[in-house]
Design goal:
Blueprint lengths: L4 E7 L3 E8 L4 E8 L4 H15 L4 E8 L2 E3 L4 E4 L10 H9 L2 E6 H12 L8 E6 L3 E7 L2 E2 L29 H5 L1 H10 L8 H7 L4 H25 L3 E5 L3 H9 L12 E3 L6 H11 L1
Parallel strand pairs: 1-4, 4-7, 8-11, 11-12
Antiparallel strand pairs: 1-2, 2-3, 5-6, 8-9, 9-10
Helix pairs in contact: 1-2, 3-9, 5-7, 6-7
């Protein structure tokens, strides 16, 4: 029997996604549910969903985790909205599923998917930011994910506002505090707009609505500054914006062009949407 499938697990700030994926990156079967803030509950749900989706054709399991990960040691170092550092995720999952487990950051997994089957196909030097509950980051140089000693690519923690709002990482003014989905919700509330106001509506209204324009600018301008710094540092071929707010963030950033003629780079939305994490995790497991 040909073994050509893997289970991908994407642990997001809001949702847990688990899928059985083919070697070509096609999702064959998937499950998704709201995520708990309790690490042990999350581990139990991963075990249950991964076991339910597993078949004899499944070679292994790939898990994308928010926060700092030592992929080589298969260990979570720390997290933000959900901290899995104290949970022996890999060992328990291998014992339960009977499959080898590959662990990496959720954004590294998403970038793997976009380079194999999405917006960054054919590119070797790519920066990716995932805009969701928080902001994740990943970098590929010469076609390989950049990890540094262990957990390079924490791009959501670039400082964009000196002495700004406190961040989960312990610093202040990180781009995650200004341009994530959580930050957008705060900006909408501060503007006294109705709860549930969507960024798409603000983007449509900003040409004629001063409040909408101010909210979008406050959300997008720090993100543009972070992108410009990354372009200056890494000189990528492409910057990809993914996550649940990636498409909207691309539209918003397009209205705040790069400030320096030196640091120009295409900024494009991810193609695989919320599926990128599980696809990349499964492809990494097959690798």
């Amino acid at each position: 029997m040909s073994i050509s499938e893997a289970i991908g697990v994407d642990i997001g700030g809001t949702n847990l996604r688990v899928a059985r994926v083919s070697a070509s990156g096609t999702i064959l079967e998937a499950r998704s549910e709201r995520i708990s803030r309790d690490p042990r509950t999350v581990l139990d749900r991963i075990l249950t969903l991964a076991t339910a989706l597993s078949t004899a054709r499944v070679k292994g399991v790939g898990v994308g985790v928010p926060g700092r990960v030592d992929s080589a040691a298969r260990r979570v170092l720390s997290g933000g909205f959900l901290d899995l550092a104290g949970v022996n995720l890999v060992q328990r999952l291998e014992d339960m599923a009977g499959k080898s487990v590959m662990l990496d950051s959720d954004c590294n997994m998403a970038l793997v998917a976009e380079m194999r089957a999405g917006a960054a196909m054919g590119r070797q030097h790519v920066v990716m930011l995932t805009i969701g509950t928080g902001i994740g980051g990943a970098v590929a140089l010469d076609g390989r994910i950049l990890r540094g000693r262990a957990s390079g690519g924490q791009l959501g923690h670039l400082t964009v506002v000196h002495d700004g709002l406190p961040c989960n990482c312990g610093r202040k003014g990180c781009v995650e505090t200004t341009s994530s989905g959580t930050a957008l919700g705060r900006l909408i509330a501060e503007a006294l707009l109705p709860a549930g106001t969507r960024i798409e509506a603000l983007l449509e209204a900003m040409a004629t609505d001063e409040v909408a324009r101010c909210v979008v600018t406050a959300w997008a301008a720090p993100l543009r500054d972070a992108i410009d710094s990354l372009v200056a540092t890494i000189d990528p071929e492409l910057v990809v914006l993914g996550g649940g707010l990636g498409q909207a963030a691309c539209r918003a950033v397009a209205g705040t062009p790069a400030r320096s003629p030196w640091y120009q780079c295409p900024v494009e939305p991810a193609m695989l949407g919320d599926d990128a994490g599980v696809i990349g995790a499964a492809l990494a497991a097959l690798d």
